[in-house]
Amino acid sequence: MEAKKSQQADLEKKKGLFLEIGLVSILALVLVAFNLRSTESSGSGLKITQVSNEMEEEVLQTEEEQQQEPEPEPEQPEPEVTTELEVVDNDAEIENELGIIDAGDDANKAQEEVVVTDVGEEKAVEEEEIFIFVEKFPEYPGGEEALYKFLNQSIQYPEMARENNITGTVVIKFVVEKDGSITKASILREIGGGCGKEALRVVNSMPKWKPGQQSGKAVRTEFTLPVQFQLQ
After folding, report:
1. Measuring CA to CA, how many Å separate 6 from each of 13, 15, 29, 83, 176?
2. What is the span of the domain harbouring residue 210?
3. Within a domain: residue 205?
4. pLDDT of 104-141, one tens digit each?
5. CA spacing 20 to 30 A to 83: which of 69, 102, 196, 201?
6. Domain containing residue 173: CATH number
7. Does the model's pTM come out above 0.85?
8. Under 8 Å CB-to-CB from 156, ≥6 apart: which residues?
9. pLDDT of 35-58, one tens digit each?
């Protein structure tokens, strides 16, 4: 009867072979790992080298630009102006270093040569005082009755005042000059409708008055005259 081999006996024989295969596999893995690490380290070293080279190039370019740009020249301080005074005796002659010409004599000669033409003195005409209150007031020739008669005969009632039934008293102010003439007539009070303008026209057309007197002398006198406008 033939004896059968067990599986355990077969495995015991192949144990050494399996051990050798395992060792070979482990060594292969170690070699692969070592090669990968060396590759990574060489790659990182390459990158660091490139970065350092780029930094060196930028530094060199910056130095070249600084060398090419001219440095600004420092501002030189302005020289201080000093004035030296030289003291000399009163009797010493001082030379005119600045070339200043004494024009005193020439100016005097020029003034002597100027011909002054007398054009005559202008007489300042001072306006004499106008009195308001005097010892004797101005008077219309023939008195007050003759004055109102002249006004009634001379005044023409304005058509506008008549149409609008305007009545009242216009006051005219004027100056009786020393010769009795009427000047500076103006409307002091107006009622409208052309009455003031008509009263002013009549006053300016009056004949000469007897002038006012002060201390026995004729003076310019201000006079106020009321002129009535009344419809009948």
Report:
1. 12, 15, 35, 132, 176
2. 130-229
3. yes
4. 445 444 444 444 444 444 444 467 899 999 999 999 99
5. 102
6. 3.30.2420.10
7. no
8. 198
9. 776 655 444 444 444 544 555 555
Tokens 């030379």 identify what position?
95
More confident residue, 32 or 161: 161
Residues near 162 by Cβ (< 8 Å), separated by ≥ 6? 193, 231
From its phi and psi, is residue 168 left (phi > 0), alpha (psi between -120 and 50) or beta?
left
CB contact set of 67 (below 8 Å; sequence gap of 6+): none
* Rounded CA Rg of the chain: 67
The total domain count for the chain is 1
Distance separating alpha carbons of residues 43 and 37, to the nearest angstrom: 10
Query: CA-CA distance, 111 to 104, in Å (whole number)?
Result: 11
Q: What is the DSSP string of 129-141?
A: PEESS-SB--B-T
**141: nearest Cα among 180, 184, 182:** 180
Contact status, residue 194 vs residue 158, Cβ threshold 8 Å = yes
